[in-house]
Known about the structure:
By secondary structure, the chain is an alpha/beta fold. The protein has 4 helices and 15 strands. Strand 11 (about 155-160), helix 4 (about 175-180) and strand 12 form a beta-alpha-beta unit.
Amino acid sequence: KSTMFIDLSHEFYDGMPGFKYKNDDGSVTAFDVSIKPFLTHEQTRPRYQDKAEFEITEFHFHASMGTYLDAPYHRWQEKRAIGDLKLDDVILEGVLIDAREAFERTAWDVIPRVDVRGRAVLFNFGWDQFWGKPQYEAYPFISRAVIDWLIAGGAKLVGVDTLNIDDTRDPERPAHSRLLQNDILIVENLCNLNALRGHAFRFFAAPIRARGAAAIPVRAFAEIR
């Protein structure tokens, strides 16, 4: 039987949509991505006597862009950063939670009867369909009761196909605060979770070993079993 992989990541591209950060003075700073040539093929050709040419690409981006992973350090100064994570923290057996009923900006408050111990728990709100549209910023999130259940159940990672696992109107940020405090990693802006329904799968969200980073974009994907 051949192995099937499902890509769960949004494309990462120049000028892509991202977070908007509200400053103290009421102004808004938009997180952004810039991808451009530092040196083009044409510029490098003379260096190699017209026998070869290369592009050197330059990136500039805020780390919380696209499909990305939050390390505990994102919320807690004393805890692990991205570069401290091990591969077995980000390669996990997965479980999918069908949360499509939360199709308004309300907290998902259903406690599923599934075993989450040691697993990546992915909440399928179906919100990726609004990626790049204004509706994407008015998303559902998980409730405090669900956060308690994830911690008590021993989940290792929690992922959502929304902009944020928390309600941005709540300054306590309970999901980030409590999950990361308990060393449960978070992946936001997933997509294509619909394709995992009815399948056993293993989840991958391996980042580069970025020392001291609080978050980082990842190529998240699932291996269907």
